[in-house]
Amino acid sequence: MARQYDMDRRAYLTTIGAAGATALLAGCTQEGSSGSDAETLVPGTAPGFAPFEFKEGGELTGFDIDLLAAVAEEAGYELAEWSELDFETLIPSLTEGDIDIIAAGMTITDERSQQIAFSDPYFESNQSVLVREGGSFQPESEDDLSGNRVGAQSGTTGEGEVERMIEEGTLSGENFRQFENYPLAVDALESGDVDAVVADVPVAENFAASRDVEIAFTIQTNENFGFGMRQDDDRIEDINEGLSAVQESGTYDELVSEYFG
Question: Where is the segment annotated Disordered (predicted)?
């Protein structure tokens, strides 16, 4: 059975409170703490996206966190302290050299690929529509969302799906609510400030297991997640080899079982 992770607003604010110090430490790390000659990568993520990345007992954890650690080890790299950022700032932080690699449940898209390079895909996902559990609003399709307030996290493909529905005329732009992170979006859903939230299926399932929300229906988007690196960083070839090794060794399947059941 998969672990359940309750990332409420208080936990998220605790996460952000520690982010600044973590980022500063990350930027200063050049060699592994063990004193080895292994080259160090500075990883970046955006907590609040359980079960991929979140805080548990004050510690950063999640599928992406453990997977990248295993991949880096196979590839012969050490990881510096994680830099914890808002999702929208991950790509700018990467291109500006503040971090070396993104592990944040980031979907490989044409738009993002114009700015950064992606590793081989390591996870597939679709989008889900969350509503209040047992509520009167129980949409069965995108058309049923018309006239209702819909939210998503800024910078995500969930936001992209809402924007698509606005462009197609299914939703009104004035009913779209953007949130800094998904825990805040689910807070708004539970309190009635929005009627639905669009989020990646595994993230939506996690909220449905730990909060007073449920999945109404799924939008087939066939997305692939990848690690992000700078376009001129040849180390991505090593990361791909490390990912392949982790998948072949069975470690990948063990992590999937632990975090997704």
Answer: 136-161
Q: Which one-letter amino acid corresponds to residue 113?
A: S
As a whole-number percent, the residues of the chain with pLDDT over 90 amount to 85
Calculate ∠ Cα 158-210-201, nearest 5°: 30
Q: 31 to each of 36, 41, 234, 237, how far by Cα in Å?
A: 7, 9, 19, 21
Q: What is the pLDDT of residues 76-116, one digit of tens each?
A: 999 999 999 999 999 999 999 999 999 999 999 999 999 99
Q: Domains of the chain (ranges plus CATH)?
A: 9-122+226-260 (3.40.190.10), 126-221 (3.40.190.10)
Give the helix/strand (H/E) hosting 117.
Answer: strand 117-118
If you search the block for the tokens 């730990």, which residue do you land on? 210
How far is residue 196 from each of residues 15, 58, 142, 218, measured CA to CA in Å?
Answer: 25, 29, 11, 12
- Look over the chain and give the mean of its residue pLDDT values, rounded to a whole number: 89
Q: Which CA distances in Å does 86 have to 23, 39, 107, 122?
A: 12, 26, 16, 22
